[in-house]
User: Fold these one by one.
Assistant:
Number 1:
Amino acid sequence: MATPTGSDEPAAIPTDAGVEVRMFSAKPYDEAAFRTANERHGHEVTFLEPRLDATTARLASGATVVCAFVNDDLGPAVLEELAAGGTRGVVLRCAGFNNVDLATAERIGLRILRVPAYSPNAVAEHTLALVLALNRNVHRAYNRVRDGNFSLEGLVGFDVAGTTAAVVGTGAIGRIVARLLWHMRCTVLAVDPYPDDHLVELGVQYVSWDRARAEADLITLNCPLTSETHHLVDADAIAEMRDGVMLVNTGRGALIDAEAAIAGLKSGRIGSMALDVYEEEGRLFFEDRSSEIIDDDVFARLLTFPNVLITAHQAFLTREALAAIADTTLANAADVVAGRPSPNEVTSP
Ligand code: NAI
């Protein structure tokens, strides 16, 4: 077959192709996206179903690069075992890196790269989907109608237009959420130490977290999980929110103290809540557990509220996002092996 240069020689594989990448927590949709993207990268990718933890880390032995996802355990013991097995870097196929012990990674010389932005639209659009579905009880109406129950009792929502919405974290995702809510004619408040000029031009007001929670009818969490944001929504914060506030979290589970949220739902302070993430999701999400007994009583309680809508960490799940994640992750793997600096590298603060 003729190559782009016109010769009959096979196209040269870049010198940093052929990296041995072992992927943990691999699902069929990951595999499909990575196989397609890898036609351009030429790495040797092995797809492993198990989640990465201390009991499975030995499966990485001999792989130059390990590919991990949001709920893989990248604590000190696992990182040490990866390094001992010859791994030089971990490429995260996600944006968040709160599950990585960066201090250990740096100490043992293991590089950590992530996908800082793939399709912020995917997460922002899912956030809006949750707001609209929860408000208009689409999750309940769907089941009712299928069951021949056409009663509208209990399905009353509110006009999102005219409400005050607070977006916590206006980075790649939050700034799109803020724009979508602005287009829906909300008064948009934003909480972020780094204001976005375009949002300010639109009339979005940057305010303190104290003020946002006191004034907002709807609060969406789009900031990363850090020591500062851990349980940002706790009992004290909930006590200062407006009665009947709608709370939406597509950031990371531990931004919300789930037990405090349950108390807030029971008292009515929280009027409704939508979650795509949950603090203890690592033991639940991404698997079919429909034949198991859920032994997480907090999560089981959340499932009992008619005004709680939960999706299992699927906000990122669009074709476009999966393709972009695969492409950047495979490029990151090449950078690890070539020893190239990368803007996608994460280091401890
Ligand atoms: P980003 O890094 O572009 O933006 C994060 C923003 O949060 C920054 O502007 C930062 O200044 C701000 N921030 C940091 N600390 C804050 C604080 N204490 N209060 C208010 N704002 C603060 O990140 P991006 O891409 O927008 O993602 C945000 C988070 O969304 C990620 O860290 C990740 O945890 C989560 N995420 C969830 C996904 C899902 O499928 N549910 C998929 C992708 C990301």
Number 2:
Amino acid sequence: MDMTAIRDFAVETARAAGALLKENVGKVNRIEFKGAVDIVTEVDRKSEELIMASIRKSFPAHGILTEESPEVKQDSPCKWIIDPLDGTTNYSHGFPFFCVSIGFEVEGEVRFGAVYDPMLDELYTAEKGKGAFLNGKKIKVSAIDELGRGLLATGFPYDLRASKDNNLDFFSQFSLKAQAIRRAGSAALDLCYIASGRFDGYWEMKLRPWDVAAGSLIVEEAGGRVTDFSGGRFSIYGKECLASNKLLHGEMTRILSNK
Ligand code: IPD
Ligand code: CA
Ligand code: CA
């Protein structure tokens, strides 16, 4: 597998889609509701079209899993996992925290990830086994080793009004133990902020593969850990994501697994 071609393509495509998001920020005029608080804008769809057309042109045999279209299944071990706009609620309000997330999977393993924040012009990348980078500079997780000094991040699922399994209980427990918590509104960027040491721990439930495919690899390659809530093996197709600088992982799993 020529990973150079994959990397160059992912970076170029993330930047192109990011430019489209930046150009249109503040100009959204059509919002559709997928659920009570789950929205999609015409910009999500335009970004997705751009990315899917690029993949079809450069890698026509590869599968594509994206948020807003049916999965493109192919008889290939290679699959692109795309969130064309992570942080749609922020985007629709002009709150400048959103990104494009592109993950590349081979035989079920994420091998490359790129997350691009067009507002700060920050591009996070990681290739399996090769480290994590922010705008080409190597990054690593923080050295905070006490929850009480940690800045944590989380998010709430779109079904929070309908389901009791909505993270409010964990949120109140962590609020009393961490230095502070942020709910910034983009899971992919939250993970990249763990990787770059801005956040020390992050947990969220009911995420989808496109939210975490790229970001989870970026955390691991920056020296962090990603698991389910009890410290077990993480899957991008699973329901729980706990990411940390490794040092806070034990304390966080104790709260998240009610031990
Ligand atoms: C959402 C964001 C948010 C998280 C949600 C995600 P979207 O993705 O990542 O931070 O809390 O669960 O679905 O809908 O903006 O692509
Ligand atoms: Ca998302
Ligand atoms: Ca999205």
Number 3:
Amino acid sequence: MKKKFSKFLAFALTGAMMTAAFTGCGASGGDTDTADTSADTAAEAETEAEAETEAEDTADEAAGGQKVGIAMPTQSLERWNRDGSYLKEQFEGKGYEVELTYSDNKIDQQVKDIEGLIADEVDLLVVAAIDGESLSQVLADAKDADIPVISYDRLIMNTDAVSYYVSFDNYTVGKLQGEFVETKLDLANAGDKTYNIEFTAGDPADNNAGFFFNGAYDVLKPYIDAGTLVVPSGQTQFDQVATAAWDTATAMERMQNILGSYYSDGQQLDVALCSNDSTALGVTQAIETDYSGSNSVVITGQDGDVANLANIVDGKQTMTVYKAVANEAVATLDLGIALLNGKTPGEELISESGWSFQCAYDTSSYDNGTGIIPSYLLVPTVVTADNIQSELVDTGYYTLDDNGYPQAK
Ligand code: BGC
């Protein structure tokens, strides 16, 4: 894997900081009298407004009346609401017209939505697939219409219509979960001590799910092989632990069954390795209602969903792997603009775009069945109760409510 890292300020944060800088500027004539100050402020505001209008005009001109079609999977899983609004906001901020669709996690609906976007003559498609295998036909239509396609977060399989993939390093997400468990239980120094673990993975229709599971499992397998980690249910294959549609209730029911079948005799559950927050939420509920042990179970997750962050604050979930989707949207924006301008960007997009976040250009990891799809992969972070403030609040992604629970901005 070819890696290049680059450091700049995130678009969203830059926006916020620029606003703050501007405000600071307007308020700085503190020594002058009120009339002068308000006159200055009014003049400044006017200049500011003119500058903004000019910038918008330039963006509109640059965008040349082009339209971007964004197809997101569902609003019922928290993160896609954030992805959709960040993407829309940012493309619109550059003067593009945006059509955003959500398909209620229904595959046929997503195909129809994308057909609609093609019929509406979008110039670029950004698609987070519900089922990575089901878009070949509709994307062949996109290709016939010369519409470039960015596969967003989830790789779309078996179609040569996909130009690029933007995501986080999905294998690393799982690896961070596995390493977290390894460190938390000090598995390397466990000696004769053994721990019980159960796995909950994601949707088999989502190409990411296997990467997350393998990333975690590869770290923990040596301990399972050595007998330090024991899986009482015996369910260690991805197909056995997968959760259709990443559904919370499905994950909860499966864990209730496991607890009833393998832990009702007082057996202790030490770890519930969950691939993401929607499944972790269900597993946590099952443990609350159906587990008789009094130990605190190590529970992993991914995304930083608000309900899970509250559970982390309350000590009910142990960690989540946070992926700053605001940055994923920024990478997609700059890639999208390059494609809309007829370019075929490579690794240089990272340095030329001036991003504040780390990103790797990868031309070996993601083969969608028609060949390698060049990928821009961002870097995920581990979040626990100890670093919510520094990773999520100080960075500006979340605020804390009056009760100390993180709320998305
Ligand atoms: C995303 C995860 C998310 C999951 C369910 C995956 O494709 O990468 O961030 O938790 O879908 O929405």
